[in-house]
Design goal:
The protein has eleven helices and 33 strands. It has 696 residues and is mainly beta.
Length: 696
């Protein structure tokens, strides 16, 4: 394994000298001239000796001088365990400059290598050589104060002295969230679930740096790189479109798409999605990172998907809410236009704390579904704190949500509500993890606004809910667990409790207050010794009235969508999933079988049976005798198959084909719930930055 050291040096008059930051080392490489230097002087002696050598031996090519070029040559090089210099890459405007840089580095002598833990180790550096050449300034241990007035020749050349360094996949060691994508996460899920590790896998999205400890992104992606030398070939198949890197910052900028064409053969609908996007990410300093995406989208989907979206339309005249995306307006005669922007900033002052402010989604759990908190609903503003120490990871999240129903809209403005939750993950042993979850929802009533009672990250939310009034808030608690039988097999579970009435939960008389749900699941990595094959089985069961509330605005929803399970409540569901990737080729298969209970919503029966979380418990069918899938009981089958090819691992650009078969059979056909079947074919190319859910 190569340990790569990192220290950043800025030399005003000559080069910019830096190292790749992935590890630390105990002792710098040693030139013969530095053999007698004290260990605390080796860093400066190494820098000074290398600068002087390059300045003395580097000859500026005639064409560069003739054309009066001013700039720099960036040399990315390595010193191996034997102390030999090796140039990895040279970035320069002229080929002659690249050749000259390589010639000079071939002249360097073999030196004593750097050491880590007392053993020789690899170390990588970036050296920027100013053109025209400028004599190096000898680096001393003591430095001039930054506030001291600089010489005029220095300040007048600040712009010219800005140096572009080669981008070295800094995102993989950054604090940026890895975009939520089930298939992408399945690639490194095995590396995160080995026995003996002290990591935590339920709080998502992960940040790159915490995953990179167990799954080397750069190494894995390097296996997929194509041998392309042209600018277009490199950018299309291997790299980000635009990369900018300086001494203490880096930025990438990429265009993207989510283009789909398809056919709902049963409803005879030609479907499409036309999303154009641009996204950027970057870092400023060592601890601050950012990520942002802007989407512009139009689409028309399968019949059942369109009806689901239109059934959740907001007040104000817009026709639909696209599930998981946002409010849509009319486009042409039969399509939707749904723009969206998401992003976050992330700051880690230490290895213990990470602070995030953003507009996006979060997920809690190890399964495909989550009964605690999922990425099913539209994005929302959030502030999050991750605290990691000992065997614990503690996540606090505060969010601002919207109720967009006409019943609560005032003066054209949607109703605001807030949610605060915390999740404590604890590694009991090297195999067993347990999690404790608590969440509270409150509305902006009596000009209450954001209730600062809920800023306390460790308080028991139920106590606050009680103190603010019986209908002042809605608290939910949950438990989770995961056990690793081996590096290849683990099981996971969740329990959600939405009503704190132990007598009703254990009484066995079917009380409407028995609002609980549970999840059981298992994962099998490299199944049957097939590398890259993951199998997953999951069972979810949620009783009627769970996530709903007698004050509807306090339900567990946002933008007319559930914050937990896609199906809401009053259902049982079995899911089987297989995912496979070999090189750039990937495939996914999924089968869902469920029994669901819907409301009738007819003139003869307008009771609430506990399936739609936006129903009012005050209109419940009964206090007792409530059974799973009560109401308009429906058999539900969803099967989905997808196969594709990863075009660019840096941007996660994919081309794919998919087919969905859906069978929906209620006991009684009503205007809103009726028997239908769907076969939906799709072909597309997309930048995979979020999860689409079609299985409802």
């Amino acid at each position: 394994m190569k340990f790569i050291a990192s220290i950043l040096f800025i030399f005003v008059l000559f080069p910019v000298f830096s190292q790749t930051n992935t590890a630390t080392f105990e002792k710098y490489p040693v030139f013969p001239e530095c053999a007698d230097a004290n260990i605390d002087q080796l860093e400066f002696c190494f820098n000074n000796t290398l600068q002087e050598f390059v300045y003395t031996n580097f000859e500026v090519p005639d064409i560069v001088t003739t054309e009066n070029y001013k700039g720099a040559v960036a040399v990315f090089f390595e010193i191996d365990k034997e102390g030999k210099f090796r140039v990895i890459m040279v970035d320069a405007v002229y080929d002659q400059l690249k050749q000259e840089a390589r010639r000079v580095f071939e002249m360097l002598p073999q030196i004593q290598p750097a050491t880590y833990n007392g053993e020789p180790t690899y170390v990588q550096f970036t050296l920027a050589i100013k053109i025209p050449k400028v004599a190096p300034v000898k680096e001393e241990v003591t430095s001039i104060a930054a506030t001291k007035t600089q010489p005029e020749e220095v300040v007048l050349n600040e712009y010219d002295n800005l140096v572009k360094l080669p981008y070295e996949n800094e995102e993989y060691t950054s604090q940026i969230n890895i975009p939520l994508s089930h298939h992408t996460y399945s690639l490194f899920d095995p590396a995160l679930n080995r026995i003996g590790q002290n990591n935590h896998t339920a709080q998502k999205p992960y940040v790159y740096s915490e995953v990179n400890r167990y799954y080397n992104f750069e190494e894995e992606n390097s296996k997929l790189l194509k041998n392309k030398s042209s600018w277009f070939g490199r950018k299309f198949w291997n790299e980000h479109m635009v990369t900018i890197k300086g001494e203490d910052y880096w930025i990438t900028l990429d265009p993207g798409v989510d283009l789909q064409v398809g056919k709902d053969t049963d409803a005879d609908i030609d479907t499409y999605n036309n999303t154009r996007l641009v996204y950027t990410q970057g870092g400023i300093g060592k601890n601050f990172n950012f990520f942002a995406v802007i989407y512009e989208s139009q689409g028309r989907f399968a019949d059942y998907f369109n009806r689901f979206a239109e059934a959740r339309k907001p007040d104000g005249g817009n026709p639909a809410i696209i599930p998981g995306r946002g409010i849509a307006k009319d486009f042409k005669e039969d399509s939707y236009d749904y723009p969206l922007a998401t992003g976050h900033i992330s700051y880690s002052p230490s290895k213990t704390f990470n602070f995030q402010l953003g507009h996006g989604k979060n997920f809690i759990g190890d399964g495909y579904r989550s009964l605690l908190f999922s990425d099913n609903a539209s994005p929302y503003p959030f502030f999050k704190i991750n605290t990691t120490f000992w065997k614990i990871k503690y996540t606090n999240t505060w969010m601002s949500l919207r109720d967009v129903r006409p019943e609560v809209t005032a003066d054209g403005s949607f109703r605001t509500k807030y949610i605060a939750n915390h999740y404590l993950s604890y590694n009991v042993t090297k195999r067993l993890n347990i999690g404790l979850f608590e969440s509270v929802i409150w509305q902006n009533d009596n000009d209450r606004g954001f209730d600062f009672n809920y800023l306390n990250p460790v308080i028991f939310y139920r106590a606050i809910e009680f103190s603010t009034g019986s209908r002042g808030g809605n608290a939910i608690i949950g438990l989770s667990g995961k056990f690793k039988f081996s590096d290849d097999v683990n099981v996971y579970s969740q329990l959600i409790i939405d009503e704190f009435s132990s007598g009703d939960i254990s009484g066995g008389d079917g009380s409407y207050k028995n609002k609980i749900g549970y999840q059981l699941g298992a994962k099998y990595y490299d199944a049957f010794k097939v590398d890259g094959l993951m199998l997953q089985a999951e069972y979810n069961r949620v009783r009627p009235y769970t996530y709903s509330h007698n004050t509807v605005i306090l339900n567990y929803g946002h933008n007319n969508q559930s914050l937990a399970h896609t199906l809401g409540a009053n259902f049982s569901e079995f899911i089987g999933i297989a995912r496979y990737q070999h090189g750039r080729i990937f495939s996914d298969a999924k089968v869902i079988v469920a029994k669901r209970g819907f409301e009738f919503n007819t003139e003869d029966d307008m009771f609430f049976y506990g399936g739609n979380i936006y129903g009012s418990e005050d209109n419940r069918i009964s206090d007792n005798g409530n059974d799973l899938a009560q109401g308009n009981t429906t058999d539900f089958l969803h099967a989905e198959l997808q196969a594709g090819y990863l075009l660019n691992p840096a941007t996660n650009l994919k081309v794919y084909a998919s087919v969905i078969f859906r069978d929906f059979k209620p006991e009684i056909d009503t205007a809103e719930v009726f028997e239908n079947q769907t076969t939906w074919f799709n072909f597309g190319i997309r930048t995979d930055l979020f999860n689409w859910y079609y299985d409802f």
